[in-house]
Amino acid sequence: MGADTFIAFFGLRCSVANSEIDAVENNEDQRIVVAHRARLQTYFGRLTDGEDYFLFIGTRLGVFGLENDEYDAFDMKSLQEVERETRRKLAEAGLAGEPQLHLQFEAQY
């Protein structure tokens, strides 16, 4: 049994259709393939059972919870570097969209 998780991620948040779940889980989804080729990180999950799945593409800042990271801190210079590098890599990968800071709760179910 797991524990609740809180994800901090800078980049894109994509919806994942039920028909895409297997490809995403097997890292065969085209978004994941081009993201990894551009040295971007990904995170796949959903809020809780029955909710829609999501896929983050960009830079993982942290995954927090009892079974994950407990704490982290970033100064503004490092956050600006994360933003700059993530934007560059997303463009290199051809992934469209405006990257944002995503703070996502993921409940254990």
Structural features, described:
There is one protein chain. The chain has 109 residues and is of the alpha+beta class. 28% of the residues lie in helices and 34% in strands. The protein contains 3 helices and 4 strands. The protein has helices at 21-25, 30-37, 76-93; strands spanning 5-16, 41-46, 53-64, 100-106. The protein is flat.
Concise synopsis of the structure shown:
This protein has three helices and four strands; from the N terminus they run βααββαβ. By secondary structure, the chain is α+β, with helices and mostly antiparallel strands.
Strand elements, count: 4
Can you summarize the main beta sheet?
Answer: 4 strands, antiparallel
Taking all Cα atoms into account, the compactness measure Rg is: 14 Å
DSSP strand (E) fraction?
25-35%
Note poorly predicted spans. none
Number of helices: 3
List the quaternary state of the chains: single chain
| First-last Cα distance | 9 Å
N-to-C SSE string, H for helix and E for strand: EHHEEHE
Shape: flat
